[in-house]
């Protein structure tokens, strides 16, 4: 986790900016939420977003600290600055939530997502798909005479771009993991 | 100290170690082992309610009148689902209660077993936190954590779901530990922010304190510090419905309640102030009226223990996260150390301005000779009970607003009302919880007949435990507040807002073995109220009042504080399309 350690409810030196300047333009924020790995904790987080009408663009979760029983939830959400501040404060209220980090404001961060794409086609289209996959550094994880499954890792917009190119070449199925993100530096 | 015992015994032991003396509950299949343990001990009183909703509201009444967490024990399935309204009520009003539910045995969870419900799933959005305990060894620490979470930070309801096999199994009991839970909300306010508020107070010419339930929840010290602060600065003070009693109604800086049915002087002072100091309130929509016209000239300071309350509705210029008592203590310290400065002259002028609004006498009414006005009934109740050691509960509706307007509260924890959720049926069971905690005090539930009927089964509880709760029903044979809105908003089409088959409340009282009193003549009112007070036992007081009285003053939906209606003459066409969609 980043060097920024916050106490829940802290008014300063924290992810909660209690003196924001509110605009009404929607912003995209990536939040990292460190939670107690206990039953129902994901339901609490998702229930909060559903119950209060917040957006979820992407959500990933997995245990990151086995001995400490901690999981990390990475949420990409959109909203006005006031809504984003509310989301962070509301997440902070959930009892098993240990830390809330707004990677979009706390410093430069890297975001990665993994996707698998199945492309069905023959002849030139098949060759072109393979050539483009090479340019995007996507690898072939399964192949038949009439199809490829590509694996690609990257920022979400890179995956979007790759999927757009594959569509006319016979894209039939996409599976994406959602975003994982970390702050850069130490 | 550790000991081996069954889960059921553990629960009782944990309650004892948490200092619990009263549990409100209702038995059923999935909690029988616990009830068996309760049977075999005498330290914890169990109060058998008549419906699980009543148990939760009773626990809320107990909690609000004592400051201690209220405890509930109910069975699985319907026992748990019936508790949902009470849990939501406690969540909205930040009341600490701990609810224990039985659950089908762990090996049957998910099989649609008899009386199975996904209790933690259902109650997840209406509790502060909840737990399903699948291992008897974890039961005692979970219960202790539940009490910690319910009472720390912003208080609220918690629920512990205990499968029946976990109650039977043996495990290791651990005492409440001294090691800290990871849940430790910040209680001390940031001293720089507090200093900034002090600087604003020193410069303010038209300041106002706007206080809420957070002051009561923070404990008696918070009310004491608030009184010291208000009296030392001379700033006027108003309060939300939830905060009544934190500052005494007889205090010289008291403006009365603010908000939709608040006092004219309180609302106009909010509108015209230059420094608004919110202490433990949350800018509820009943308070703010139209947001973009709310207190347009003021700097807003907001003290709240819950960071999510700050900037949720109204942007705070000076945000302070912390417990009210801690923040007020530091605030007073800083203000005193900087020389106790205020703009005394300007504030005296501000009070003169407020006095001109006060002269409007917005609560004035003309008593009738041949029928009882509800306002008159409450004014007489106030006059005849104010010397008593008195606790007031209410149901929800017109009577609730009139009670807030016409009854005066001198101390915190004396006023139990469903504020955030607006739960009809809250007051009667709450009065039972209050009376349990304060057996010698005068406990009155000011009710409307429609609300009261929603939990009337609790008469059985009141009679069984000889709880002398006084049910003061303002009976207009109408859903008064619904009727009022239909009159103002829906062309006087009174769709389903009256009851055609009300019971004879005197006979109803007698059927339960209690006393019933009916009063319809203003000339008899005082004697009848005295008869109610002096009767040593539960009383249903059926006070037949004017049927079409409306509750004023009123800020119509979608209007600002300075657009208050003072009486009937001003009501025509006041709520326009934009306001009509608001509740």
TrEMBL record, chain A:
**What pathway annotation does it carry?**
Amino-acid biosynthesis; L-isoleucine biosynthesis; L-isoleucine from 2-oxobutanoate: step 1/4; Amino-acid biosynthesis; L-valine biosynthesis; L-valine from pyruvate: step 1/4
According to its UniProt record, which reaction does this protein catalyse?
2 pyruvate + H(+) = (2S)-2-acetolactate + CO2
* GO terms for cellular component: cytosol
A Pfam family matched in the record: ACT_AHAS_ss
Q: Which GO terms describe its biological process?
A: isoleucine biosynthetic process; L-valine biosynthetic process
- The UniProt record lists the ACT domain at 30-105
The Gene Ontology terms for molecular function here are: acetolactate synthase activity; acetolactate synthase regulator activity
| Source taxon at top rank | Bacteria
E.C. no: 2.2.1.6
Fetch the InterPro entries from UniProt.
Acetalactate_synth_ssu, Acetolactate_synth/TF_NikR_C, Acetolactate_synth_ssu_C, ACT-like_dom_sf, ACT_dom, AHAS_ACT, AHAS_small-like_ACT
Q: Which UniProt keywords apply?
A: Amino-acid biosynthesis, Branched-chain amino acid biosynthesis, Transferase
User: Can you tell me which family this protein belongs to?
Assistant: Belongs to the acetolactate synthase small subunit family.
| Described purpose of this protein according to its UniProt entry | Catalyzes the conversion of 2 pyruvate molecules into acetolactate in the first common step of the biosynthetic pathway of the branched-amino acids such as leucine, isoleucine, and valine.
Xref: PANTHER family: ACETOLACTATE SYNTHASE SMALL SUBUNIT, ACETOLACTATE SYNTHASE SMALL SUBUNIT 1, CHLOROPLASTIC
Subunit structure, as described in the record:
Dimer of large and small chains.
Q: What name appears for this protein in its UniProt entry?
A: Acetolactate synthase small subunit
What organism is this sequence from?
Answer: Sedimentitalea nanhaiensis
Automatic annotation (TrEMBL), chain B:
Cofactor binding annotation: Binds 1 Mg(2+) ion per subunit.
- Gene Ontology annotations of biological process type: isoleucine biosynthetic process; L-valine biosynthetic process
Tell me which residues make up the Thiamine pyrophosphate enzyme N-terminal TPP-binding domain: 5-120
- A Pfam family cross-referenced in the UniProt record is TPP_enzyme_C
Identify the residues that the record assigns to the Thiamine pyrophosphate enzyme central domain, covering every copy: 194-331
Query: EC number(s) on record?
Result: 2.2.1.6
**What does the entry list under GO cellular component?**
acetolactate synthase complex
Q: Which InterPro entries match?
A: Acetolactate_synth_lsu, AHAS_TPP, DHS-like_NAD/FAD-binding_dom, THDP-binding, Thiamin_PyroP_enz_cen_dom, Thiamin_PyroP_enz_TPP-bd_dom, TPP_enz, TPP_enzyme_TPP-bd
**Which protein family is it in?**
Belongs to the TPP enzyme family.
Q: What is the protein name given in its UniProt record?
A: Acetolactate synthase
Species in which this protein is naturally found: Sedimentitalea nanhaiensis
Q: What is the lineage of its organism?
A: Bacteria, Pseudomonadati, Pseudomonadota, Alphaproteobacteria, Rhodobacterales
